[in-house]
């Protein structure tokens, strides 16, 4: 019995050093892995969506003219287009664009057998700063136009820039919150932002109103981790 007891004790003493070495190796590997994870850049992405009321209206204006000569007809039609822009600006509107989208020019014979030329032109007029097309029509009542129609709503460049800035700030705030949570899990602090990418997309018209657009924004950021002191 004594020999058996001594043998068991020797066996136990022989195993203990190997167990301690294995535990030290596991602890070192764990610390090495944690250090590698803590040094890796922190990436976070977020997206938001919001509605914005349009501030720009585009409408089609049709007008026509008759002249005895072709050159005179062209001059008259060009003057009509200039009058439209001048009338709109004189009514306090900011004209963003005035583009001819359709034009029909033809020679005609009058009842008195005198030759002449007839012109029919459609101009797309875009004005900013208005949300109600009736307000625009009321201010353009003196225009030399035969009809007004084809309403379209959109955001002007300044309004679109403001919308993109608002979405960018919201996306960046969400990204920073998510990145801070990731840094906390790594037992680190959020450092400098190394890269930030952002894009917007006008999705569709809002079902609430025809003069409201839905814009989404998506961003991706990469941060440098900072070890806690």
Structural account:
With 229 residues, this protein is α+β, with helices and mostly antiparallel strands. It folds into two domains: 93 residues, Protein of unknown function (DUF541), domain 1 (Translation Initiation Factor IF3, 2-Layer Sandwich), CATH 3.30.110.170; 99 residues, Alpha-Beta Plaits. The chain contains four helices and seven strands. The strands form two sheets. The protein has a four-stranded antiparallel beta sheet with strand order 3-4-2-5. Strands 1-7-6 form a three-stranded antiparallel beta sheet, with helices on one face. A hairpin with a 6-residue loop joins strand 6 and strand 7. The radius of gyration is 37 Å and the shape is rod-shaped. The N terminus is likely disordered.
What is the chain-wise order of helices and strands? HEEHEEHEHEE
**Broad CATH class of the largest domain:** Alpha Beta
Total number of distinct structural domains? 2
CATH topology name of the largest domain: Alpha-Beta Plaits
Which architecture of the largest domain would the CATH scheme give at its second level? 2-Layer Sandwich
Number of helices: 4
List how many beta strands DSSP finds: 7
If you average the pLDDT, what whole number results? 78
Task: Explain the layout of strands and helices.
Elements: H1 2-39, E1 42-53, E2 56-67, H2 70-90, E3 94-109, E4 115-128, H3 133-139, E5 147-154, H4 157-185, E6 188-205, E7 212-227
Antiparallel strand pairs: 1-7, 2-4, 2-5, 3-4, 6-7
């Amino acid at each position: 019995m004594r020999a058996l007891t001594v043998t068991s004790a020797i066996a136990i003493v022989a195993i203990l050093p190997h167990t301690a070495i294995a535990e030290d190796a596991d602890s070192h590997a764990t610390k090495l892995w944690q250090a590698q994870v803590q040094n890796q850049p922190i990436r976070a992405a977020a997206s938001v969506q919001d509605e914005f009321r349009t501030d720009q209206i585009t409408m089609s204006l049709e007008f026509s003219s008759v002249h005895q000569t072709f050159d005179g007809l062209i001059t008259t039609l060009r003057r009509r287009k200039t009058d439209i822009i001048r009338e709109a600006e004189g009514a306090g509107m900011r004209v963003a664009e005035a583009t001819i989208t359709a034009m029909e020019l033809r020679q005609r014979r009058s009842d008195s057998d005198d030759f002449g030329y007839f012109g029919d032109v459609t101009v797309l007029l875009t004005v900013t700063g208005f949300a109600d097309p009736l307000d625009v029509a009321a201010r353009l009542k003196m225009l030399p136009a035969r009809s007004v129609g084809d309403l379209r709503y959109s955001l002007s460049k300044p309004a679109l820039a403001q919308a993109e800035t608002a979405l960018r700030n919201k996306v960046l705030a969400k990204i920073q919150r998510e990145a801070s949570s990731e840094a906390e899990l790594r037992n680190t602090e959020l450092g400098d932002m190394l890269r930030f990418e952002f894009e917007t997309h006008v999705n569709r018209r809002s079902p609430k109103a025809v003069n409201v657009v839905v814009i989404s924004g998506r961003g991706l950021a990469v941060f440098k981790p900072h070890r806690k002191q």
